[in-house]
Amino acid sequence: MIGYYNYTVILTYISLVSSLVGIFFAAGVGGGEPQPDYAVICLMISGQCDMFDGKIARTRSRTESEKNFGIQIDSLCDLVCFGVLPAVIGYSIGMKSWFDVPVLVLFPLCAVIRLAYFNVAEEERQKGTDEVRKVYEGLPVTSVALLLPLLYSFKRDIGMELFPTVYGAALLVIAVAFITRFKVKKPSVRTMFAFVGIGAVEMAWLIYKLKIK
């Protein structure tokens, strides 16, 4: 079989599977009602997986081909998880008017531009150094796994009629941030664990909101 198969890619694949399930929930596959609440939970699971896939990958000695393969599948999966899924969630919650469609298209487009740029920049960077990247350019696409669920948890407080507009505005701002040239410091291990904790709290809060709705 083509490809590389070892434990370093497992979390990346789990992240992808989670987001695909989220797309199914959001789209109401099988003729059922769309379930964006569960889709958002899937988005958060993907974010938690993505937080550590790079760390796990570096625990194993890999060939250049394996490293490049890891970079490519990470970006391809990130496009689905943090580019496509948030747009599908937007559609499922009511972003269906003519002026919503450009936002839903722009969001994954900006995500793929940023991810492709990152791949090129990372390949060039690795030719000159073996050091771990310390800064990112533009807002990392994985940030939506924290930002959007936090916003979504206040859906009822914002109002069901108004929320699609607020969600769409958030998608637009985030999409622009993906391709805006500014520096973002790569989080340390301690910061990453803090993000995991924040994500866990967000997930618990969202599940609690689901129970009381």
Key features of this structure:
213 residues, mainly alpha, 8 helices, 3% strand, globular
Description:
The structure is a single chain. This protein is an all-alpha fold. Helices cover 70% and strands 3% of the residues. The protein has eight helices and two strands, in the order ααααβαααβα. Strands 1-2 form a two-stranded antiparallel sheet. Helix 1 runs antiparallel to helix 2 (36-57), helix 5 (144-152) packs antiparallel against helix 7 and helix 5 runs parallel beside helix 8 (189-212). The longest helix is centred in the middle third of the chain and has 29 residues, at 64-92. The protein is globular and about 50 Å long. The N and C termini lie far apart (47 Å). The mean pLDDT is 85.
Shape: globular
Average of pLDDT: 85
Structural class by sheet pairing and helices? mainly alpha
Number of DSSP E strands: 2
User: Which spans of ≥5 residues are poorly predicted at pLDDT below 50?
Assistant: none
Distance between the termini: 47 Å
Q: Sheet bearing the most strands, described?
A: 2 strands, antiparallel
Q: Could you tell me the radius of gyration in angstroms?
A: 17 Å
SSE order, as H and E? Answer: HHHHEHHHEH
- Biggest sheet strand order reads 1-2
